[in-house]
Specification:
By secondary structure, the protein is an alpha/beta fold. 35% of the residues lie in helices and 21% in strands. The chain contains three helices and three strands. α2 links the parallel β2 and β3.
Protein backbone atom coordinates (compact mmCIF):
# COMPACT_ATOMS: atom_id res chain seq x y z
CA UNK A 1 0.00 0.00 0.00
CA UNK A 2 1.45 3.36 -1.00
CA UNK A 3 0.26 6.43 0.85
CA UNK A 4 0.63 10.03 -0.18
CA UNK A 5 2.25 12.43 2.27
CA UNK A 6 -1.18 13.42 3.58
CA UNK A 7 -2.33 9.84 4.11
CA UNK A 8 0.13 8.33 6.56
CA UNK A 9 -0.44 5.19 8.55
CA UNK A 10 -1.52 6.31 12.02
CA UNK A 11 -2.89 3.28 13.82
CA UNK A 12 -1.65 -0.29 14.17
CA UNK A 13 -3.95 -2.84 15.79
CA UNK A 14 -2.42 -6.05 17.11
CA UNK A 15 -5.00 -8.76 17.84
CA UNK A 16 -3.86 -11.74 19.90
CA UNK A 17 -4.98 -15.01 18.40
CA UNK A 18 -4.31 -18.73 18.80
CA UNK A 19 -3.33 -20.82 15.76
CA UNK A 20 -6.63 -22.74 15.83
CA UNK A 21 -8.81 -19.58 15.89
CA UNK A 22 -9.39 -19.52 12.11
CA UNK A 23 -13.14 -18.99 12.48
CA UNK A 24 -12.72 -16.16 14.97
CA UNK A 25 -10.23 -14.34 12.74
CA UNK A 26 -12.60 -14.73 9.78
CA UNK A 27 -15.46 -13.29 11.85
CA UNK A 28 -13.31 -10.30 12.86
CA UNK A 29 -12.30 -9.65 9.25
CA UNK A 30 -15.90 -9.88 8.07
CA UNK A 31 -17.51 -7.88 10.89
CA UNK A 32 -16.04 -4.92 12.69
CA UNK A 33 -12.98 -4.56 10.42
CA UNK A 34 -15.42 -4.02 7.54
CA UNK A 35 -17.19 -1.24 9.44
CA UNK A 36 -14.30 1.12 8.75
CA UNK A 37 -15.11 3.23 5.67
CA UNK A 38 -12.72 2.65 2.76
CA UNK A 39 -11.53 6.26 2.82
CA UNK A 40 -9.98 5.62 6.27
CA UNK A 41 -8.35 2.29 5.49
CA UNK A 42 -5.10 3.95 4.41
CA UNK A 43 -4.69 5.29 7.95
CA UNK A 44 -4.64 1.99 9.84
CA UNK A 45 -3.65 -1.65 9.64
CA UNK A 46 -4.50 -4.61 11.79
CA UNK A 47 -2.55 -7.80 12.36
CA UNK A 48 -3.29 -11.03 14.16
CA UNK A 49 -0.38 -12.17 16.33
CA UNK A 50 -0.32 -15.97 16.15
CA UNK A 51 2.09 -18.39 17.84
CA UNK A 52 3.17 -21.84 16.72
CA UNK A 53 1.18 -24.99 17.28
CA UNK A 54 3.67 -27.82 17.63
CA UNK A 55 0.96 -30.31 18.60
CA UNK A 56 -1.17 -30.14 15.44
CA UNK A 57 0.37 -29.94 11.97
CA UNK A 58 -3.12 -29.61 10.43
CA UNK A 59 -3.62 -26.34 12.29
CA UNK A 60 -0.19 -25.15 11.16
CA UNK A 61 -0.96 -25.90 7.51
CA UNK A 62 -4.33 -24.15 7.77
CA UNK A 63 -2.69 -21.11 9.37
CA UNK A 64 -0.07 -20.95 6.61
CA UNK A 65 -2.83 -20.98 3.96
CA UNK A 66 -4.64 -18.23 5.85
CA UNK A 67 -1.44 -16.18 6.05
CA UNK A 68 -0.98 -16.41 2.28
CA UNK A 69 -4.62 -15.54 1.60
CA UNK A 70 -5.03 -12.50 3.86
CA UNK A 71 -1.52 -11.27 4.65
CA UNK A 72 -2.62 -10.05 8.08
CA UNK A 73 -0.87 -12.58 10.32
CA UNK A 74 2.31 -11.99 12.28
CA UNK A 75 3.85 -15.31 13.27
CA UNK A 76 5.33 -15.40 16.77
CA UNK A 77 8.22 -17.90 16.65
CA UNK A 78 7.45 -19.38 20.09
CA UNK A 79 4.86 -21.96 21.03
CA UNK A 80 1.35 -20.81 21.77
CA UNK A 81 0.60 -21.16 25.49
CA UNK A 82 -0.80 -19.21 28.40
CA UNK A 83 2.64 -19.10 30.01
CA UNK A 84 4.17 -17.54 26.89
CA UNK A 85 1.51 -14.82 26.57
CA UNK A 86 3.51 -11.91 28.01
CA UNK A 87 6.55 -12.89 25.94
CA UNK A 88 4.35 -13.12 22.85
CA UNK A 89 2.93 -9.63 23.43
CA UNK A 90 6.38 -8.16 24.07
CA UNK A 91 7.70 -9.83 20.91
CA UNK A 92 4.71 -8.50 18.91
CA UNK A 93 5.30 -4.90 20.02
CA UNK A 94 9.00 -5.22 19.29
CA UNK A 95 8.19 -6.61 15.83
CA UNK A 96 5.86 -3.72 15.05
CA UNK A 97 8.45 -1.19 16.28
CA UNK A 98 11.24 -2.61 14.14
CA UNK A 99 9.36 -3.80 11.03
CA UNK A 100 9.56 -1.66 7.93
CA UNK A 101 6.09 -1.09 6.53
CA UNK A 102 7.29 1.21 3.76
CA UNK A 103 4.61 3.84 4.22
CA UNK A 104 6.02 6.17 6.82
CA UNK A 105 4.47 4.88 10.03
CA UNK A 106 5.91 6.76 12.98
CA UNK A 107 5.43 6.01 16.65
Amino acid sequence: MTNSKNQRLRLMIMILSAPSDHTLRKCIRNSYMKLIPDRYRTYFRYYFLVGSSAADTGVTMETEKEEEMYGDLIRYPGNESYYELSTKVYWGFNYLLTASFGDGFEF
